[in-house]
Design brief:
The complex is a heterotrimer of chains A (248), B (547) and C (198).
Chain A lengths: L13 H16 L4 H18 L4 H25 L5 E5 L2 E4 H25 L4 H11 L4 H12 L1 H18 L7 H28 L18 H23 L1
Antiparallel strand pairs in A: 1-2
Helix pairs in contact in A: 1-4, 1-9, 2-4, 2-9, 3-4, 5-6, 7-8
Chain B lengths: L2 H11 L4 E9 L8 E8 L4 E5 L6 H9 L9 E7 L4 E4 L12 H11 L4 H14 L15 H13 L5 E5 L7 H18 L2 E5 L12 E5 L5 E5 L1 H7 L1 H6 L12 H6 L4 H18 L7 E12 L2 E12 L3 E6 L5 H8 L7 E6 L2 E2 L5 H7 E4 L12 H10 L5 H14 L15 H11 L7 E5 L7 H16 L3 E5 L3 H7 L2 E6 L2 E6 L1 H6 L9 H23 L1
Parallel strand pairs in B: 3-7, 3-8, 5-6, 6-7, 12-17, 12-18, 15-16, 16-17
Antiparallel strand pairs in B: 1-2, 1-4, 8-9, 10-11, 10-13, 13-14, 18-19
Helix pairs in contact in B: 3-4, 3-5, 4-5, 5-6, 10-19, 13-14, 13-15
Chain C lengths: L4 H37 L9 H9 L4 H15 L6 H20 L7 H22 L7 H32 L7 H4 L10 E4 L1
The chains are: A mainly alpha (248), B alpha/beta (547), C mainly alpha (198).
Amino acid sequence: MLTSNQSYLSVINPAVKLITHILLMIMLMSLDDPLTTFCLWIFVIIIGISIGGWRLVYLLKVLLPYTFFFVLIFWMMAAFGKGENVLFHWVWFRVTEESVKNGFNISLRMLGFVTIGLLFTSTTDINKLMMSLIHQFKLSPKWAYGFLAGFRCIPLFQEELSQIKAAHRIRGYRNYGSWKAFSRYAVPLLTTAIRRSERMAIAMVARGFTGTKERTYYIKPTVSKWDYGYLIATLLIAGVIILFVGSY
Amino acid sequence: MLLEQAQEQRMIRMTSLLGCKDLSVRFYNQKKQVLDHIDITIQDGEKVLILGPSGCGKSTLLSVLAGIIPEHMEAEVSGEVTRKKRVGVMFQDPDAQFCMKHVNEEIAFSLENRKIPREKMDEEIVKMLKMVGLSIDPDTPIQTLSGGMKQRLALACLLALEPDVLFFDEPTAQIDPASRKDIFALLQQTSKRTKKTMVFVEHVLDGCIEWMDRLILLDKNSHIIADGIPKEILLSYKEEMEEAGIWRPKVYPAKWEEVVHNPSHPLNGELTQRYKSRKLRASCKKAEIEPIIVSKNAALAYKRTSVLNNINGSILRGEWVAIIGKNGSGKSTFLKALANLIKLKSGDILLKGKSISKWADKDLYSMLGFVFQNPELQFINDTVFEEVAFSARQYNFSEEEISAKTTKLLKEFGLAEYVDLHPFMLSFGQKRRLSVATMLLLDQEILLLDEPTFGQDEKSAKQLLHLLKRRQEEGTTIVMVTHDMDIVDQYADRVILFEDKEIAYNGHPYFFFRNKKGGIIPPLHYQLIEEQGDRYANEQSVLSVSH
Amino acid sequence: MNWKIKEVILLVVLSVACGILYLGWSTLWIPISALVGPVGAGFMFGIWVIASPIVAYIIQKPGAAFIAEVAAAAVELLTGSHFGLSALLVGIFQGIGAEIAFALFRYKKYNPSVLMLSGAIAGIFNIIYNMVANGFSYYTTTALVTTLIINIISGMLLGGLLGKLIVDVIAKTGALDQYAIRTSARTKDDKNDFVVRM
C-alpha cells in the first residue's frame, strides 16, 4: 500500500497523478449508463497494464476479494430500488428493469473506483506523495510529516488489533456488533495510540523539527511535461470514450 | 567524600555545561511535586547515570535537562536550568522515534531539520551508518530492522544532529539481552570517539556502569541520596538500590579475570555454589509423569512462509518450560499455536490427549491461560476487580463464589488495594501481574506466557516469578517464551531452542548451558566453570610441555 | 489558531486508529445489509463518524473534526475498504457535517449535546453524499426518510455519545493530560520563577 512499483507511472509526479485520478473518478460518478462505465473501467485497466506495471495475474488476485462486495451492491440496488417495470417480486425484494440497470451501473462504478484508486496506490510512494504535496500544493511540513509519522503506525495498529481479538477470544468475550464491543476494542487501541503519538511528537521536536518551512529536503519532486502529458492525455481519452459510447 | 562537600566543590569549580538549581517540577494533574528542589551540575564530557525507583522523577529530570519540559510538555516548573540548545535524546520505544519509512530518509530527517544542503546529505548518511555499525543498504525499510538495529539507527539519527549533549532514557528497556550488550558497547565506543557529554537513565547496569564517570541515586521522593563515583555508591548503597528495583551488575565492581583466577574471591565462591546446586537439580530423578502437551510433526506457517517444521516432543504435567531462540525464530508463533490462536500448517498438537483443533474454546480456555506480551491489550473491564472476575462470569458461578475467588487471587498477586482502579492506571509491573492473575481465576492447569519479564525492573520481575513458582508447585504447567537466560537457568525444568525452523535442543537447562549449545551466552556460573576448566587444562599442557 | 506538532500527530494517529476500527466495522456491515438492505443496516452508521467527536473533543481546535474524519476515511481506503474512493468522499462530506456542529458554537463548547449534534449533522451529510453520488435518489421516498432518521439517531448515539464516553474513560487514565481537553480547564499559576540559561 502506497509503495511504488518500478513502472513508468511511478515516475509521474504524485500530486499531478492524484488530481488526474480524482478527476477521473468524478467523471465516472457523472455517468448513469452501465456500458460507458464499463468502457471507462477497461480504459483504466489498459493504462495499468501498459504503463502501470500491472500484470493480469496481479490484477485478478487483487480484485477478486471485491467481487462478492460488488455482487452485493448490485443486489442492494436491484432489489430495493425504485422502478416501474417489475421483473421479479418476493417478500420485500422488488426487482425492476430500471433498478437492474442502476445496479449494474453503481457496482461497475464501485469497481472503477477501486481500480483507479489501485492504479494510484500501487504506483506511488507515500513519502514522495507527501513531499509532492509540500512542494506542489504548499502543504505545511508540520502536516505532511505529521501524516507520514501517523501512517507509519498503520501496521502497528493492525497487529495490536489482532492481539486484542485474540485476547478477547481467550477471555471468552463474544459480542461483536454492539457498542460495548466496539468500545472494548477502541479504548485499549486508542489509549496505546495516544501514548505512542505523544512519544513520537516529543521525539520529532527533540530532533529539531519545527514544522516550519525553514528546512531543506531530501526528496524534492518536480513537475515536468510528462506529468502534464499524463493528466491531459488521460482525461481527454476518458472524455472521448464517454462521448462516443454515450451516444451509441 | 560527603555528598554535600562533593556538590559544593563542583558548584565552585565550574562553568557548568548542564545542570539545574533548586528545580521543582509538578505535573498539573498531580498534587505532589515530581521533582523537589533538585541541584545538579554536569561537566563537559561527563558520563552520568541517574538511578532511582519507579516514579522518582528521573525521566522528568532528564526531560528538563534536555529542554523537553516545559517547552514541549506542560508542567509547573520553578528554579533554574542551564542547558544546551543542541541535544539528542534516545527513548526506550524504538518505534516511536521514527517518522519515515526508509533508513536514509530517517537520517535525512535530522539533516533536514538542521538545514543541511541536499548535496551533502547522502555522504552524511553513509558516514552515520558507518559510525553506528549498521552495514545495511540505506534504502532498507525500517520495519525490517530488529529492535537492536532500530536503536542503532536512532543513535545515527541523533549523531546526525551534532548535539552537544546526548540523553538516554532507558534505551535498552525494550531490547533483548544480547542486543542490549551490543548497544552499550556501541555507546561506549561512541563516547570514547566523540567525548560528548552523556546522561543516562537506566535500570539495568551491566554493560553501562563500567564506563560511567558518575552515578546519581535518587530516592522515591526525588531527593538525591548519593552522587559520586559509581563503585563507591554501589558498595555503600546496596539496600537502597535493591529497594529501587535496580538490576544489580553481576560482576562489577569486581573484575572478571580476578574472579576467575582467584578461587577465594567471594563472587567466585558464590558462582561455584550456584553451579553446584544447578548440577544437583539436574541429576534429580523425577517420578514418571505423563505428558500434558504432545506435538506430533507440527509445522507452522505465517503468511505463507514456513516458520517451523518437524516439531516433535512433549511437555510433562507440572513442568516449567522455557522456549528460547533468536528474534523471528518462531517462539511466539508456536506459543500461539499451543493456545489454538494459530492453525497448524500440518501435523498435530495434542492437549491432554485430544487434538487441539477439536477443543471447544470454552473448555480449552478454562484449562489454559495465555499471557500476552503487552498486558494492556487484553484488558476488557473498568475495574481491577471486574477484570479478574470476568472469566468466572462466563461460567455461571454464584456471586459469592466469584467474589471469594477473585479476592483471594488479587491478594495472592498483591493487587488487593487496587480493586476499584481502572486497569490502565496501574504501573507496568502491576499490569503484568494483573494480566497473569486474570488467566488463573479458573485455576487453569496450563499457563502460556510471552516474555513476561520484558521491560520490568528487578523487583517486579522477581515478584512475578515467585508467584509463578508457587503455582508450579501446586501443579500448574508453565510454558514461557523468554530471552533471559538467568530465568531459564533458575526456574526452568526444560528448555526448548528453536533454530533454523526446527528444534535444536530439548532438555534440561543445566546440560544446555554446560555444553554451550546454540551460541547462546550462558549465565555467569557456567562461564566461570568453563574458564576455570580451560585454565586448568592449559596449565596441565604447559606443565607437560615444560617437562 | 496555531496547531502544535503534538496535536497534529495526535490527530493523525487517532484518525489512523479510527480508520482501522472503521474497516473492521465495515466488514460486519456486509452480511447484515445483504439481508435487511441499506435501510436496516443503517443503525450501524454512527461508528463511521466517531473520529470527529473523539478528536475534536480532545484537541478543541477548528478543523479538527473535519480533518479527523477525512484522515480516518483515507486510512480505511488505503487498508483495503471495499467502498474504494467513495469511502474517502463520504468521509469528506461527513467531516464537513461534523465540523459544522462545532463551528456553530464557535469551537468553544464540547459538551455531550454538541458532540451528539456533530454526529447528527454528519448523518445528514451522509445522505446528501449518497444522493449526489450513488443514486440514492433512486430509492423510494419512505426508504430515504427512514434512512435519514436512522442515520441521525445512530450518529448521535454511536457517534457523538459513544465517542464522548470512550474519550472520558481514556482521560481518566491520565493519557490526555497534555491536550486541550484537560488543559483548557486548568487554572495556570502566575508564579513563573523559572529561568533557563543556554
